[in-house]
Amino acid sequence: MTYRVTLIPGDGTGPELITATRRVLESTGVSFDWDIREAGADVMEKYSTPLPDAVLDSIRANKVALKGPITTPIGTGFRSVNVAIRKILDLYANLRPGQSELGLSGCYDEVDVVVVRENTEGLYAGIEHDVIPNEAAESIRIITRRGSERIVRFAFEYARANGRHLVTAVHKANILKATDGLFLRVAREVAEQYPDIEFNDRIVDNMCMQLVQRPQEYDVLVLPNLFGDIVSDLVSGLVGGLGVAPGANFGDELAVFEPVHGSAPKYAGKNMANPTATILSGALMLRHLGETEAAKQVQDAIAAVISEGRYVTYDLKPTRDDPSAVGTQEMADAIIAELQ
Ligand code: NAD
């Protein structure tokens, strides 16, 4: 069977990471018909928008996409293409697993935390304006019963389907009484419908401290949008950094797989960025497609290459300027050799 998948190379380091990932996925023997679509800062001039409709139409038609990171101008300029894809296609659940199974030295052992981040509301609703230009600005944080209920339910269903025992709702309901108060109330209501899964909650600042001190005590975390974004980067830091952190965005019918990290523009075109996070996102996609054996092979091959420590990018070497670090494509070559 051949899978038709939308492939969005993105910009910055995205295209080289997607090339590496595509080569690894194809070497598993699974057959793909890639529907390649351009989006991001580099196509602004050509299409007058960083997110042409054809990209969204392709994802709607194929139902599955693999995406490289896309740059968002900071403070000014166009709004995030990444957020727009999630919101327009209602990909409400952002799954970001953080596992220490790659065994990177200097990192925590036995961490297995899955971050489930709400992807469509919260502060990312993008409702903000100047009150007095250059003096005061205002941003509105939207939390709804519907949005909270479906993300908490997603977390419990994920826990049940993957043999996990604990869901922790993370919030700031002591201060944000209306918004996070609602999120927490709904989380408690949903938790009652899953008596087989343990449930607790943590205030987000305490959660960050606990994750640094005792990450092994946590299992599945469910968070509103901004907290989920921040805490998932923290979790990736526990297990090896952004270079190894995969992600996936799910709606009821569509799924878009992409690394947690951004476009790392300073490394664009230099063949330096670590392809692991994007390749592992590809492995999550293989699982989603039902290709469980191929997904496992890819994960095992990555673990073997990383534990050998020879053909890895700069960020996985003991020092950042280690001359023995290899490039993006050479690390992918080593993973492919391991697969074969
Ligand atoms: P970033 O994730 O691009 O980089 C953060 C740090 O991690 C940098 O030091 C970078 O060099 C390093 N890093 C990231 N990916 C790496 C990799 N594969 N290998 C080795 N090191 C890696 O975050 P940023 O610098 O805050 O953002 C850069 C741009 O990316 C911004 O425009 C931002 O909006 C965008 N962004 C996009 C996404 C997405 O596409 N989903 C996510 C986050 C940020």
How would you characterize the largest beta sheet?
10 strands, mixed
Distance between the termini: 21 Å
Number of helices: 11
One letter per element, helices H and strands E, the order comes to EHEHHEHEEEEHEHEHEHEEHHH
Spell out which ligands are present.
nicotinamide-adenine-dinucleotide
Strand order, main sheet: write it out. 2-1-3-12-11-4-5-10-8-9
The percent range for helix content is 25-40%
What's the alpha carbon Rg, rounded to whole Å?
20 Å
Structural class: alpha/beta
**Uncertain segments:** none
Average pLDDT confidence is: 96
Tell me the fraction of residues in β-strands, as a range: 15-25%
The total count of strands amounts to: 12
Large-scale geometry = globular
Can you walk through the features of this model?
The protein is α/β, with parallel strands linked by helices and 340 residues long. The protein has helices at 14-26, 44-47, 53-62, 81-88, 145-161, 179-192, 204-213, 225-238, 276-288, 292-308, 328-339, and strands spanning 2-8, 31-36, 64-67, 93-99, 112-118, 122-132, 136-142, 166-171, 198-203, 220-223, 248-250, 255-257. The strands form 2 sheets. The chain has a 10-stranded mixed β-sheet, with helices on both faces. The longest helix is centred in the middle third of the chain and has 17 residues, at 145-161. The protein is globular and about 55 Å long. The mean pLDDT is 96.
